[in-house]
Inverse folding.
C-alpha cells in the first residue's frame, strides 16, 4: 500500500466527462490498495472568468475579496468530484484549504504556504476515505481565505504530499510530461524522462507553465519527487528529481518562452550615482517585481534605463515611472508590451562554453533582433519582439540538437 497524492489541472476537470474520467482514475488507484489524496484545480477557464467578472466591477479589485472570489472555482470542482466518487460507491470527502489546514501567510492573491497541519487528512485516510482537497487556496493565521497565485494548485499538491509524507506526488495535466519546449508551439519538442529540480525551477520561472515555480521550490526543499503526466492516457511522464551526474552531459535541456512581460524605458536620465535606485525603488515600493534591467551609457552624462515587469503590473509600473521621470527630468517614458523572453536552460552550461554565442548566432540567422540579454549559471535569456516567439523557439530548439527524430 502506498500513499499517493494526485493533482489534476483545469483541463483535466474541464467538463463533466473529464470529471468522470478523472474519478475513474482515482478509483482505480484506490482499488489497487492505495491511500489517495487528490488536489483539484478549477475547471479550465473558470479562474480567468472570475478575474474578468471582478474587473467589470472595479479596475483594481480588493485583493482580500479577490481571494474569496477566486477560491470558489476550486470549491466547485472538489464538491463535484466527491459527489461523483460517492455516486460510484466510494467513501470520499471534499476539503477546502482551511479544512485541510493549509496555513499560509497573509499575502492576498500570492500567499505562501507556511505549514500543512495534516491531522484531519490523516484521520480521513485512516477511515478509508478518498480525500479531495481544493488546490490553489489556503487560510492565514487570522482565518482569512488566501490564494497561492496562478497555477497554485501544483504547489498545493507538493505541499500536501510533503505534509502527509506521501510516497508519490503525481501532477496530471494536458500534456504527457515536461518537454524540451512548449509542445503547443514547438512541434519537434521531446518529452524528457527526467529533469533536475534546478532546471525545472529555471524552466518554470522562465515561462514553462506546466509547473508553478513555487511547487518546484517546495519539492526541492523537502525532496519530494514529482511525476508530471497526462490525465488522458496511461503513459509514464517526466520525473522531476535531484540532479545526478549524467544530467551534466546534456548542455541545453530546454527552450522556454514567456510572453507575460512588458518593458519600460526612461529616456535621457542624468547619469549620476544612485539613479537606478531613484527609478527602481518606487517601483518595488509599489509591490512590483522587476525582472531584467539594462542601463546604456550615453554621451553628455545622460543615459537610458530599461527594465521589464510582469504584464499585470505594467499599468501600475508605467504610472510610477512617469511620476519619477518628471521628478528627475527624464526626457520621456516609453512602454512596450509586445515583447517575449526566450531562454535556453541546462545544467551542462556550467561546464561548457559557447552556448551564448550559439544562441545569438541562431537568432541573427533568422533576422531576430535581441533587445535585452540576461544570464545565470544555467541559462541565457534574450528579450525579442513578440511576433518572433515561435520562430525563435523552434530555431533554437533545432540549433541545440533538441528536435525529436
Ligand atoms: P494544468 O491546467 O494542468 O495545470 P497548465 O496549462 O497550467 O496545465 O500547464 C500545462 C501547459 O504548459 C501545457 O498545455 C503546455 O502548453 C504548457 N507548457 C509550456 N512549456 C512546457 C514544457 N516545457 N513542457 C510541457 N508543457 C509546457
Ligand atoms: N485555478 C487556478 C488558476 O487557474 C489555480 C490552478 O489551476 O492551479 O491559476
Ligand atoms: Mg497549471
Amino acid at each position: 500500500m502506498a500513499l499517493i497524492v494526485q493533482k489534476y489541472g483545469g483541463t483535466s476537470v474541464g467538463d463533466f466527462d473529464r470529471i468522470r474520467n478523472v474519478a475513474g482514475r482515482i478509483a482505480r488507484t484506490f482499488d489497487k490498495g492505495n491511500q489517495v489524496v487528490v488536489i483539484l484545480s478549477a475547471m479550465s477557464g473558470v479562474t480567468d472568468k472570475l478575474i474578468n467578472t471582478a474587473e467589470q466591477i472595479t479596475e483594481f479589485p480588493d485583493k482580500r475579496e479577490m481571494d474569496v472570489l477566486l477560491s470558489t472555482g476550486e470549491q466547485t470542482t472538489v464538491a463535484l468530484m466527491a459527489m461523483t466518487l460517492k455516486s460510484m460507491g466510494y467513501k470520499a470527502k471534499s476539503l477546502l484549504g482551511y479544512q485541510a489546514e493549509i496555513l499560509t501567510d497573509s499575502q492576498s492573491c500570492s500567499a505562501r504556504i507556511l505549514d500543512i497541519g495534516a491531522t484531519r487528512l490523516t484521520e480521513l485516510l485512516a477511515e478509508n476515505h478518498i480525500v479531495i482537497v481544493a488546490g490553489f487556496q489556503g487560510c492565514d493565521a487570522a482565518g482569512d481565505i488566501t490564494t497561492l497565485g496562478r497555477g497554485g494548485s501544483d504547489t498545493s499538491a507538493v505541499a500536501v504530499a510533503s505534509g502527509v509524507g506521501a510516497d508519490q506526488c503525481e501532477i496530471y495535466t494536458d500534456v504527457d510530461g515536461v518537454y524540451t519546449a512548449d509542445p503547443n508551439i514547438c512541434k519537434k519538442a521531446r518529452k524528457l524522462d527526467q529533469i533536475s529540480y534546478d532546471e525545472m525551477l529555471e524552466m518554470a520561472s522562465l515561462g514553462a507553465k506546466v509547473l508553478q515555480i513555487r511547487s518546484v521550490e517546495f519539492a526541492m526543499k523537502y525532496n519530494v519527487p514529482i511525476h508530471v503526466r497526462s490525465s488522458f492516457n496511461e503513459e509514464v511522464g517526466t520525473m522531476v528529481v535531484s540532479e545526478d551526474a549524467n544530467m551534466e552531459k546534456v548542455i541545453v535541456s530546454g527552450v522556454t518562452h514567456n510572453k507575460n512581460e512588458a518593458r519600460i524605458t526612461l529616456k535621457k536620465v542624468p547619469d549620476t550615482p544612485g539613479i537606478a535606485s531613484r527609478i527602481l525603488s518606487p517601483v518595488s515600493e509599489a509591490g512590483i517585481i522587476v525582472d531584467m534591467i539594462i542601463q546604456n551609457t550615453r554621451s553628455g552624462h545622460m543615459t537610458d534605463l530599461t527594465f521589464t515587469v510582469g504584464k499585470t503590473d505594467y499599468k501600475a509600473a508605467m504610472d510610477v515611472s512617469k511620476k519619477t521621470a518628471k521628478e528627475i527630468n527624464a526626457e520621456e517614458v516609453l512602454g512596450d508590451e509586445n515583447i517575449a523572453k526566450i531562454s535556453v536552460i541546462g545544467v551542462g552550461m556550467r561546464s561548457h562554453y559557447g552556448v551564448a554565442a550559439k544562441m545569438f548566432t541562431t537568432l541573427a540567422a533568422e533576422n531576430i533582433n535581441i533587445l535585452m540579454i540576461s544570464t545565470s549559471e544555467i541559462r541565457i535569456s534574450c528579450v525579442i519582439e513578440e511576433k518572433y516567439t515561435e520562430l525563435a523557439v523552434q530555431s533554437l530548439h533545432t540549433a541545440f540538437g533538441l528536435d525529436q527524430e
About this structure: The chain has two domains: 3-174, 244-405.
